[in-house]
Amino acid sequence: VLAGCPHAGVAGVYLWAVPTSEHGLVVDYVGETSTSFYGRTKEHVIQTLGGNYLLLDPDAMLRGKREVVWAGLWRAGTRDQFPAFLARLGDLAPVARRYLLLHHVLVAPLAGDRRLRQRIEAAIATAVYESLPRLVADDIRYQGRRANEEPIGVTITADCAVRGLPSWVAA
Predict the structure, then answer these.
(1) Which DSSP string do the residues of the chain spell out, in sequence order?
(2) Mean pLDDT, the chain, as a whole number?
């Protein structure tokens, strides 16, 4: 992941997306990092393999469907489920591997102000939430523009078509 990416070591906004059979590349996560894309991607992989993050069925994702295989351990009401995760680890590990390898990580380098990155992340996530098919989880906490913050227009370009990714957002 991110092998040969000239931006792997910088901060910015990123998307995790999967190629679907009918809808092209569909986003299932919008994120922001103030460290590096490489470091944050490594955290995602470790958290997924360790059962902390949500795990969707890779075959369903390829069809643009959101079917939860493992709900993760970070949400309220799931934090005590580690024994259940360990009991299912033999079945979940190969699914997690396929899930991770299915993803494309798209990066937008943006150094400097973390608050600006958070606003852009939230604006993109809002647009992605409104598109179908929808793979992004409902309970991800984004820090969108506050009432006392002036809107900032952001133009978005990508080297490939991404379902639900707008060409412009107000962050």
Answers:
(1) --TT-TTTTS-EEEEEEEEETTTEEEEEEEEEESS-HHHHHHHHHHHHHTT-S-EE-HHHHHTT---EEE--SSSTTTTT-HHHHHHHHHHHHHHHHHHHHH-EEEEEE--S-HHHHHHHHHHHHHHHHTSSS--S-TT-------TTS---EEE---SS-EET--SEEE-
(2) 96
Whole-angstrom distance, CA of residue 42 vs CA of residue 36: 10
CA distance to 6, 115, 116, 139, 150, per residue, from 144 (Å): 28, 9, 9, 14, 12
Give the CA dihedral 47, 48, 49, 52, nearest 10 degrees.
60
Question: Whole-model pTM?
Answer: 0.95
Q: Per residue in 55-79, pLDDT tens? A: 999 999 999 999 999 999 998 899 9
